[in-house]
Amino acid sequence: MKLMLLGAPGAGKGTQAKMLTSEYEIPQISTGDMLRAAVSNKTALGITAKQFMDSGSLVPDEVVIGIVKARLDDAYCRNGFILDGFPRTVPQAEALSEVTQLDAVVNIEVDEDLVVQRLSGRRTCKSCGAIYHVVTSAP
C-alpha cells in the first residue's frame, strides 16, 4: 500500500502513520524525521539542510525531493509506505507523481482550536529530537 496523509500541523498525521505502519508493516516516510536524522548524522544533505533550518527558512524543494526519492527507491519501501509531511509544494507533488503512483490519499481534518492546543503544548528535545506534549506526553 502506498499512502499519503495530509492535514494541518498537529492534525495527527504522525500519530496515525505510526499506527498504520504497525498494522500494515510498511514504513512511515517523514521528511521532518529524515531531515533531523541527516542533520544529526552530519551528512552532506544534513549540513545543507541545517543552514536553512537554523535560519528558519524552508529546506528547498530540490533537497527534500532528493531525500524522498532516495528513500522510495530503497528496498525498505518495496512493499509500500506512508508519506507523512510530503509533498508540501506543487513541485514536490509533481516530482512524486513522476516516481510512483499512490493507492490512497487521506486528508485528516481537525478543528482549528484543537490544532492550536496540540501545537502550543508541543516540546522538542534538543538532544535527540523526540517530540513531547506538556499534557498528553510529558518528557
Q: Can you put this structure into words, describing what you see?
A:
The protein is α/β, with parallel strands linked by helices and 139 residues long. The protein is built from 6 helices and 6 strands. The chain has helices at 13-24, 31-40, 44-55, 61-73, 90-99, 112-120, and strands at residues 2-7, 28-30, 81-84, 104-108, 122-124, 131-133. The chain has a 4-stranded parallel sheet with strand order 2-3-1-4, sandwiched between helices. A two-stranded antiparallel ribbon has the order 5-6. It is globular and about 40 Å long. The termini are far apart.
Query: What would the average pLDDT be, to the nearest integer?
Result: 89
Cα radius of gyration in angstroms: 15 Å
SS element count, helices: 6
Order of helices and strands: EHEHHHEHEHEE
Outline? globular
Report on the biggest sheet: 4 strands, parallel
Total count of strands: 6
Distance between the termini: 33 Å
Features:
139 residues; alpha/beta; 4-stranded parallel β-sheet
Detail the topology: elements first, then pairings:
Layout: E1 2-7, H1 13-24, E2 28-30, H2 31-40, H3 44-55, H4 61-73, E3 81-84, H5 90-99, E4 104-108, H6 112-120, E5 122-124, E6 131-133
Parallel strand pairs: 1-3, 1-4, 2-3
Antiparallel strand pairs: 5-6
Helix pairs in contact: 2-3, 4-5
Summarize the structure.
By secondary structure, the chain is of the alpha/beta class.
